[in-house]
Design brief:
Blueprint (H helix, E strand, L loop, with lengths): L2 H18 L5 H21 L7 H20 L18 H23 L6 H30 L4 H4 L7 H29 L3
Helix pairs in contact: 1-3, 2-3, 3-4, 4-5, 4-7, 5-7
């Protein structure tokens, strides 16, 4: 295990433990933190067969932290995002959905490039954006299924805060995140892919 890996796992563990101490709603905490824990398990299981670039590992960690903070407070009640810029709703969930497009875009990009799955820059962009939209839509379906099975217990997990277009705007933020990631990080990502051992 490299020093970078030890730091990564240490930061993940510290934030996970913090988020689990007296969370606002235990059921919501479990739902929100579960994807981060699943990511940790998948990364550990594939570490020796497929190592991502440091950039992608950093982005995954940031996304996990966003999930754990949202799990601790619930997405509708993260303190800094209360009345931010005079908005009437807490928009921490929009940050989460932006990350839900931004980070998977880079994960998908690395997998597609390193496994030579698609040829051509524009096909790569199309596949990445399609993947991110599909991933976001699937997450919205999960939210719907949880709401159906748990009824009132899922209100904090859904985090709609009375906004009728919450699902659509969540997917739009994921798409925006994917586009921003591709526009801002592709060159750095290419450099890291080329210099990987």
């Amino acid at each position: 295990m490299t020093r970078y890996s030890v730091v990564w796992v240490s930061v993940f563990t510290v934030v996970l433990v913090w988020s689990g101490i007296n969370p606002k709603d235990l059921f919501t905490w479990v739902l929100e933190v579960a994807p981060a824990v699943i990511a940790l398990v998948l990364l550990a299981a594939t570490y020796h067969r497929f190592r991502f670039t440091p950039l992608v590992y950093l982005l995954i960690l940031i996304h996990c932290i966003i999930l754990m903070v949202g799990g601790h407070y619930t997405y509708a009640e993260v303190p800094f995002f209360e009345d931010l810029f005079g908005m009437t709703r807490n928009n921490y969930d929009k940050l989460g959905h932006l990350a839900q497009g931004f980070v998977p875009a880079m994960v998908a990009r690395e997998l597609l490039i390193r496994r030579n799955i698609v040829n051509g820059r524009w096909w790569l962009v199309l596949f990445i954006l399609s993947f991110c939209l599909g991933f976001s839509a699937f997450y919205e379906l999960i939210e719907w299924w949880v709401a159906e099975f748990t009824e009132a217990g899922a209100e904090a997990f859904l985090g709609t805060q009375g906004y009728a277009w919450d699902t659509q705007s969540d997917m739009a933020f994921a798409l925006l995140g994917a586009i921003i990631a591709l526009l801002t990080l592709s060159r750095l990502h290419d450099q890291q892919i080329e210099t990987r051992p």
